[in-house]
Amino acid sequence: MNTMVVALHGLAAMADPVPTDNNVKAGWVAFAVFIWLIAAVGVLCWSLVKHLKKAKLNAESGVFGEDDDSQP
After folding, report:
1. What does the alpha-carbon distance between residue 12 and residue 67 come to, in Å, rounded to a whole number?
2. Which DSSP category does 34 fall into?
3. CA-to-CA distance for 61 and 66, rounded, in angstroms?
């Protein structure tokens, strides 16, 4: 059983060699995508807050009608 594990480990090491530092790069495209995603989340959060404030003001002014919370 132990030799089988060693053999499988040896096969896995041959099939997936450790990359060198020159082979592993995220690059500028990945950085741009990351920054774009941060900006998109920021815009979505800003829009959500804006719409929630508008909905709260409309609810306070009675645009949506009366509350039905008093009914069982």
Report:
1. 65
2. H
3. 10
Total length of the chain: 72
Full-model pTM: 0.57
Burial 43-70 (b: 16+ CB within 10 A, else e): eeeeeeeeeeeeeeeeeeeeeeeeeeee
Distance CA(66)–CA(72), nearest Å, equals 15
H helices within the chain, ranges in order? 2-15, 27-60
Model pLDDT for residues 2-46, shown as the tens digit of each residue: 676 666 677 776 777 777 878 777 889 999 999 999 999 999 999
* Among the listed residues 35, 38, 18, 17, the one whose alpha carbon sits nearest the alpha carbon of residue 26: 35
